[in-house]
Amino acid sequence: MSGKPRLTYINGRGRMEPVRWLLAAAGVEFEENFVETKEQLEKLIKDGDLLFQQVPMVEIDGMKMVQTRAILNYIAGKYNLYGKDLKERALIDMYVEGLADLNELISSNFFQPADKKEEHLATVMDKAATRYFPVYEKVLKGHGQDFLVGNKLSRADVQLLEIILLVEESKPDILAKFPLLQSFKAKTSNIPNIKKFLQPGSQRKQPIQEKDIPRLMQIFH
Amino acid sequence: MAGKPKLHYTCGRGKMESIRWLLAAAGVEFEEQFIEKNEHLEKLRKDGDLLFQQVPMVEIDGMKMVQTRAILSYIAGKYNLYGKDLKERAWIDMYVEGTTDLMGLIMQLPLQSAEMREKNLALIIERAKTRYFPVYEKALKDHGHDYLVGNKFSWADIHLLEAILMVEECKPDILSAFPQLQAFKGRISNIPTIKKFLQPGSQRKPPADDKYIANVRKIFNI
């Protein structure tokens, strides 16, 4: 037993990607166990490894943790990326939940009927530009600090960077009107652990490709 | 000004109900400002009261908190319903996320077509019986304590009771194969703050009816 956290999920971003980001940002090495077939998923279920019969699952500190938010909360708490008190946690939680909503909107594009995909994506990009990013721009402007909460790196910053990069994949100029988010992106990307994670060869995953969709659908349905 | 927490939402369960349960269980009195028309929602937005233009919003301790989970986590932490350390919190989080998933399925029913509703109702019952309730039944059986985590009353217990009652509204005999959960339901329902919340006249909201849903559609443009 290596003692490193072990992530069980498909070889793709999905719901595990924020976990990879957070562990990487915390400088924590982790192993990955890729679910590649339906049989493999069924075995995990039969062996009682998945509390609610679902992945993500992360083996960490003697627990087989499931539920993305539970996993992220634990990692953030353990590695001091969750603020210094209840009020800082409240702010971090609000910011992180907003980003999770935006992430969910982007991911849901995958499930739109083909003829509705483009329109849906445009709506999502509009929400990013009018509902979500202005909030984080304003927060940074308000205190003038490098990090969203408490003048210290937290999971909120890690997740904001993750989502900025995700949105830029669909709309490269999304930050045109957000100068502080632009400098936030540059500064945060340069944090050594994060810089390393952003380089080729890291455990960061790429967007799902069209050709992989049938195989992935088969695992879960 | 200390003040009571003030909840901004429609006069119905939705995403605010779990917050009402948690405050009530913690013995915290709260006020409610009901959004009854689209204009009320637009005013909150225009006044900059809603961080992401959405409700629930709860005014508490000088903050205008949004995002249901953020609000629930804050309340649970503040009122010592979130375990004694990181590991207990991890278990509470896992259990709560499970009941959130289950209740989330039920919450969508009123907004669906009659056909989808019937299909999803069957799914909810199957999931409750085979995916969710067995987990909590086993947890209680394995440690033999009254509460899910750390032998102490927590957010996880409150959320599970809420979920049990909600599923029972869909299928009254859903707990027939779960003796631990039956006993759990009896125990937790009898906790004075919760017992009070379960009585008529409390701030607990009824299930959505057609009239409420029609108004919700108007308010939120959905």
UniProtKB/TrEMBL annotation, chain A:
Gene3D superfamilies: 1.20.1050.10, Glutaredoxin. GO terms for biological process: glutathione metabolic process; xenobiotic metabolic process. This is glutathione transferase. Its EC number is 2.5.1.18. Residues 85-208 form the GST C-terminal domain. CDD domains: GST_C_Alpha. The lineage of its organism: Eukaryota, Metazoa, Chordata, Craniata, Vertebrata. It comes from the Eukaryota. Residues 3-83 form the GST N-terminal domain. SUPFAM superfamilies: GST C-terminal domain-like (SSF47616), Thioredoxin-like (SSF52833). The keyword Transferase applies. One of its GO terms (molecular function) is glutathione transferase activity. Transmembrane segments: none annotated.
From TrEMBL, chain B:
InterPro entries: Glutathione-S-Trfase_C-like (IPR010987), Glutathione-S-Trfase_C_sf (IPR036282), Glutathione_S-Trfase (IPR040079), Glutathione_S-Trfase_N (IPR004045), GST_alpha (IPR003080), GST_C (IPR004046), GST_superfamily (IPR050213), Thioredoxin-like_sf (IPR036249). It is an enzyme of class 2 (transferase). It holds the Pfam family GST_C_3. Its EC number is 2.5.1.18. GO terms for molecular function: glutathione transferase activity. Residues 85-208 form the GST C-terminal domain. Keywords: Transferase. Residues 3-83 form the GST N-terminal domain. GO terms for biological process: glutathione metabolic process; xenobiotic metabolic process. Belongs to the GST superfamily. Alpha family. This is glutathione transferase. It comes from Cairina moschata.
